């Protein structure tokens, strides 16, 4: 007897299943939200490799459901499959969290642990994906159809709630909590690991209340066997026998006509699936390319609140919860009032257009974002800027170059880096510096593809030159970079927020360090003296690189700040339109696609189409992996490439949709019920004839 919740027809066991799903989705999306930045900042991979591995992992997560369904249906059953693969899931999270602890081994060890952990997580989350929702449906009796439908709505809400909370919380754990001297990835991965342990424990606690159906045999495997037999049979016998109407009809020698007809229906839908991976190729870049775009934007909302770049992904889950009722209750009915026939395939095609528009919006944002980025010097050249610390205007002349045509004013903020041709991988240049008719010469060595600051300072009535290597790449998490140039004869230690800078004496430069975005009007100085106590460096903004020059005026050390790399001046709120468009596309494409697949599949083939649907997501991530590693385009051009490819796929899909005829799978029951009745009559007649023959044989044997 199944236990029911008080006053309802809902089994008590579904409470454990819903809580399990919430915790598991929190675990998965929370880990995935910070994954790209983990590759970029912790493992120190470049953007393309980080994107490629992110999508390779996502792809594996959608290939493994086939394995999970095969194990559950053919061997262990859903309950044991969920238990065993959840244990694999937990192990993966633990290994991944250990790999994020800096004190555990070296970088190679961190990479190895991370990859092993991700593989385990992919097998865990993918393996249980087709089992949990189906196991929840198994808990209901056949007469409780409406309760089962409401359960799936609650189940879907738990998925989005887990996703929403995790994409808000885990970036905070990563960026706002400091451990091991930096961002706390160990905690950001450890909390999802703990939630997965909770998911497993909750599921096990409810084991005594579950209705556990034994393995029924894998229909997907039977479909594959039937298709394989049809192909082999046709290959062997087509030369000697008449052609059949459909190539699957060659399987009639072994399989029932009903099964063959059901497979034909499924294949017609699977053919429509062929263009669909391109939509997912765009959709899943929210966690990779769009997150990387956010790191180069202004993330401040007011003076006191900064959003994390990986938190923007929560907009998708939030907008889903808002858009689903809006589309169902308002938009679709209004379109229907206009006498427009909104078929499922038309909704899906429209969803593709919205996704393409989202990437056009992302490209437009990217064009403005890159205006603050300093492009590296090409091969055979370097970048150079000059700081004049001499009292007076200085002329700089570099042989074979007109880099500084105008005199450089004292403490002038350099406008931009200039490209200095070298014509070789490295080259020594003699630079002439002139002040008030007096010329000094400096021999300096330059290397290609580097960025330099040329510091001009006075010494013994002459002008000296100092060449300093610059770091022009914006911080991967969008924070400002800061360094100090000390003109004093004494070394200093300066503390900016929680970061300490050691600044050597005599026109020397400190190391370049990352600080939090903010206003710093009280930088402490050590040793603290009368002329060096509290310094003001002003606002250090997102993505900028600053050089603060320490000079003495009127007996006190003062600061002159130079902005080497401009701050991010495009606000992160400009990403909202692209999230709105991609989520609207998801509502029309994904939810409608699931409904279409369900309605067009025979009852025993719905799992086959579900597997096919998940594979479109997997192949979509493969597309991103290939483009990220092979295209080599500027980011805004890559966004437009994806938008153009999806529009081309939209045209192909629309043409294919025109030739698709909607079917009612329930008609098969009527057709084959009548056929089965005729077959039963034929079987009865055959049995009568067989009995008569047997009686005759017995009579003959008796007489003998």
From TrEMBL:
Statement: the UniProt record of this protein carries the keyword Aminoacyl-tRNA synthetase: no
UniProt-annotated location(s): Membrane
CDD domains in the cross-refs: MFS_SLC15A2
Gene Ontology BP annotations: protein transport; response to yeast
Region Disordered: start-end pairs: 676-704
GO CC annotations on file: membrane
Identification of the protein by name: Solute carrier family 15 member 2
Domain of life of the native organism: Eukaryota
SUPFAM superfamilies with a match to the protein in the record: MFS general substrate transporter
Annotated membrane topology: Multi-pass membrane protein
Record keywords: Membrane, Peptide transport, Protein transport, Symport, Transmembrane, Transmembrane helix, Transport
GO MF annotation list: dipeptide transmembrane transporter activity; symporter activity
Lineage: Eukaryota, Metazoa, Chordata, Craniata, Vertebrata
Transmembrane found in the keyword field: yes
Species in which this protein is naturally found: Seriola lalandi dorsalis
Transmembrane segments: 26-45, 51-71, 83-105, 111-132, 153-173, 185-206, 265-283, 314-336, 348-365, 608-627, 639-663
Family classification: Belongs to the major facilitator superfamily. Proton-dependent oligopeptide transporter (POT/PTR) (TC 2.A.17) family.
């Amino acid at each position: 007897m199944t236990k029911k919740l008080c006053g309802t027809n809902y089994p008590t066991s579904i409470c454990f299943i819903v809580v399990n799903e919430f915790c598991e989705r929190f675990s998965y999306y929370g880990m995935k939200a910070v994954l790209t930045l983990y590759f970029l900042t912790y493992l120190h991979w470049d953007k393309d490799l980080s994107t490629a591995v992110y999508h390779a992992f996502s792809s594996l997560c959608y290939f493994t459901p086939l394995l999970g369904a095969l194990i559950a249906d053919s061997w262990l059953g859903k309950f044991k499959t969920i238990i065993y693969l959840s244990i694999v899931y937990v192990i993966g999270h633990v290994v991944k969290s250990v790999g994020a602890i800096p004190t555990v081994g070296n970088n190679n060890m961190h990479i190895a642990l991370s990859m092993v952990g991700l593989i385990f997580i992919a097998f865990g989350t993918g393996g249980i994906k087709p089992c949990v929702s189906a196991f929840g449906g198994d808990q209901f009796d056949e007469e409780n159809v409406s309760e089962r439908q409401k359960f799936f709505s609650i189940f879907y809400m738990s998925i989005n709630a887990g996703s929403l909370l995790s994409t808000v919380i885990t970036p905070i754990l990563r960026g706002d909590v400091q451990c091991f001297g930096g961002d706390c990835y160990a905690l950001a991965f450890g909390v999802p690991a703990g939630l997965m342990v909770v998911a497993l424990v909750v599921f096990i606690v409810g084991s005594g209340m579950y209705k556990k159906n034994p393995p029924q045999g894998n229909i997907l495997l039977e479909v594959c066997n039937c298709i394989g037999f049809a192909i082999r049979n046709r290959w062997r016998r087509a030369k000697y026998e008449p052609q059949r109407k459909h190539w699957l009809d060659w399987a009639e020698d072994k399989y029932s006509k009903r099964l063959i007809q059901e497979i034909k229906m499924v294949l017609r839908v699977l053919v429509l699936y062929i263009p669909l991976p391109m939509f997912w190729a765009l959709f899943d870049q929210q966690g990779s390319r769009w997150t990387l775009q956010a790191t180069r934007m202004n993330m401040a909302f007011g003076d006191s609140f900064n959003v994390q770049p990986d938190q923007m992904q929560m907009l998708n889950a939030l907008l889903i919860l808002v858009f689903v009722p809006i589309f169902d209750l308002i938009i679709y009915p209004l379109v229907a009032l206009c006498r427009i026939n909104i078929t499922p395939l038309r909704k899906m095609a429209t969803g593709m257009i919205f996704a393409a528009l989202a990437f056009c919006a992302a490209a437009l944002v990217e064009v403005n974002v890159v205006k603050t980025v300093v492009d590296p010097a090409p091969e055979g050249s370097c970048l150079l800027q000059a700081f004049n610390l001499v009292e007076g205007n200085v002329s700089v002349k570099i042989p074979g170059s007109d880099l500084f045509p105008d005199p450089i004013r004292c403490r002038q903020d350099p406008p931009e880096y200039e490209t200095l041709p070298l014509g070789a991988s490295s080259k020594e240049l003699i630079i002439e510096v002139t002040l008030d008719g007096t010329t000094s010469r400096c021999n300096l060595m330059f290397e290609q593809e580097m960025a330099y600051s040329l510091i001009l300072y006075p010494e013994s009535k002459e002008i000296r030159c100092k060449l300093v290597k610059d770091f022009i790449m914006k911080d991967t998490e969008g924070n400002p970079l800061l360094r100090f140039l000390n003109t004093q004869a004494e070394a200093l230690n300066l503390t900016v927020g929680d970061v300490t800078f050691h600044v050597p004496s005599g026109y020397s430069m400190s190391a370049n360090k990352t600080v939090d975005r903010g206003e710093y009007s009280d930088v402490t100085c050590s040793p603290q003296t009368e002329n060096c106590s509290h310094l003001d460096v002003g606002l250090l903004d997102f993505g900028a690189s600053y050089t603060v020059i320490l000079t003495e005026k009127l007996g006190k050390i003062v600061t002159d700040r130079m902005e080497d790399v401009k701050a991010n001046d495009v606000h992160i709120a400009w990403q909202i339109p692209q999230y709105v468009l991609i989520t609207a596309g998801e509502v029309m494409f994904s939810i409608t696609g699931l409904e279409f697949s369900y309605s067009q599949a025979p009852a025993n083939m719905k799992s086959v189409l579900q597997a096919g649907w998940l594979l479109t997501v997997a192949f979509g991530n493969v597309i991103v992996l290939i483009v990220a590693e092979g295209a080599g385009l500027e980011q805004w051009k890559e966004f437009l490439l994806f938008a153009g490819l999806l529009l081309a796929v939209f045209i192909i899909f629309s043409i294919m949709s025109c030739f698709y005829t909607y079917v009612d799978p329930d008609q098969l029951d009527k057709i084959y019920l009548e056929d089965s009745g005729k077959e039963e009559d034929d079987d009865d007649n055959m049995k009568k004839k067989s009995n008569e023959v047997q009686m005759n044989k017995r009579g003959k044997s008796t007489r003998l």
